[in-house]
Amino acid sequence: MNPLRIAVFASGTGTNFQAIYHAIERNELDAEVVGLITNNPGAGARDFAENNSIETAVINKKIHGEENIDTEILNCLRNWNTELIVLAGYMKMVGDPVIDSYKNRILNIHPALLPSFGGKGMYGMHVHEAVIEHGVKVSGVTVHLVDNEYDTGPIVMQRVVPVYDTDTPEVLQNRILKEEHTIYAEAIKLFAEDKIEINGRQVIVKRKNA
Ligand code: GAR
Fold first, then answer.
1. Which of 101, 86, 48 is nearest to 188 (CA)?
2. Could you give the 3-state DSSP secondary structure of residue 197?
3. Is 177 a pocket residue for ligand 1 (Cβ < 6 Å)?
4. Pocket mutation for ligand 1, best pick of 39, 108, 109, 172 (most atoms within 8 Å of C-beta)
5. 13 in contact with ligand 1, CB cutoff 6 A
6. Domains 1-102 and 110-141+159-210 share a fold
7. Domain 110-141+159-210: what homologous superfamily?
8. Distance, CA of 192 to CA of 190 (rounded, Å)
9. Residue 209 has pLDDT above 90, yes or no
10. Ligand 1: nearest atom to the Cα of 15
11. Residue 56: how many CA atoms within 13 Å on its side-chain side?
C-alpha cells in the first residue's frame, strides 16, 4: 500500500501535528503529510510545516472572503491528492462542502471524553476549565470522525486521564496533551492500514482474519 496522504488543518501551536509528523519519521505510521491548511497566519503549525518543506495554505475570510473558503480548501485538498483530513487544533468549523467531499475521511482530536465537554465554544483551555469546574474525576482524549456538527461524529478511539484535586487547567492540559500525542498517530494508523469499518455511530476495528 502507498503511504496515506494526509492534509493537516491546524490553527495554533501544532504540537499534535508535530507528533504525527515525528511518528511518520520514526516509521510508526505509513503516511505522508501532503499539506497544512491554517486559518491563522501566525500559527506555530505553519512555521513547523514551512521548516519541514510541507506545502502550506493560509485560508481565512480576511484573505479569501467567507464565501470562498470551502472552494479554496477543496482546491488545495484536490491538488494534494488528499486521502484523509486530520484536524489538529483547527478552531474553525469545517464547511459542509468539504465534509460532503470527504465523508468519513476527516478526523478530529478533542481534549475530553466526548460526548461530555464538547460542542460550540468547547475548545482548548475552555474544555479543561469546564472539566475542573464540574469536578469530574476523569477526563481524557477523543479521536472522532467529523460530521456537520460540533464534536458529534462517530468515535474512533478514546483514552482516559485522571483529574486530581490539585489540578489547574494548565496542568490537566499538559497531562492530556501527552496522551493526544500518542493516540492520534495510532488512530490515523488504523485508516492507513484500512482497518476501519463504520456501522452507524460505531467505528469498528477490523480483526486480522475478519
Ligand atoms: C489540543 O489539545 C486539541 O485537542 C484541542 O486543541 C489543542 C491544540 O493543540 N482541540 C480542540 O479543543 C478542538 N475542539 P496543538 O495546537 O498543540 O496540537
1. 86
2. strand
3. yes
4. 109
5. yes
6. yes
7. Formyl transferase, N-terminal domain (3.40.50.170)
8. 6
9. no
10. 17
11. 21
- What is the enclosing helix (H) or strand (E) of 188? helix 169-192
Closest CA to 94 of 72, 70, 67, 64: 70
Residue nearest to atom 3 of ligand 1 (CA): 89
| Model confidence pLDDT, tens digit, residues 57-93 | 999 999 999 999 999 999 999 999 999 999 999 999 9
CA distances to 7, 88, 93 from 106, rounded to whole Å, are 10, 11, 12
Does residue 10 line the site of ligand 1, with CB under 6 A?
Answer: yes
Q: Does ligand 1 come within 6 angstroms of the Cβ of 118?
A: no
110 is catalytic: yes
C-beta separation of 56 from 76 below 8 A: no
Question: What is the per-residue pLDDT for 208?
Answer: 74
Count of alpha carbons within 13 angstroms of residue 182, beta-carbon side: 8
Q: Domain spans of the chain?
A: 1-102, 110-141+159-210
Q: In the CATH scheme, what architecture does the domain 1-102 have?
A: 3-Layer(aba) Sandwich (3.40)
Return phi, psi of residue 35, to 5°: 180, 160
Contact present, 90 and 9 (Cβ < 8 Å): yes
Residue with cell 519519521: 25
The reported pTM is 0.97
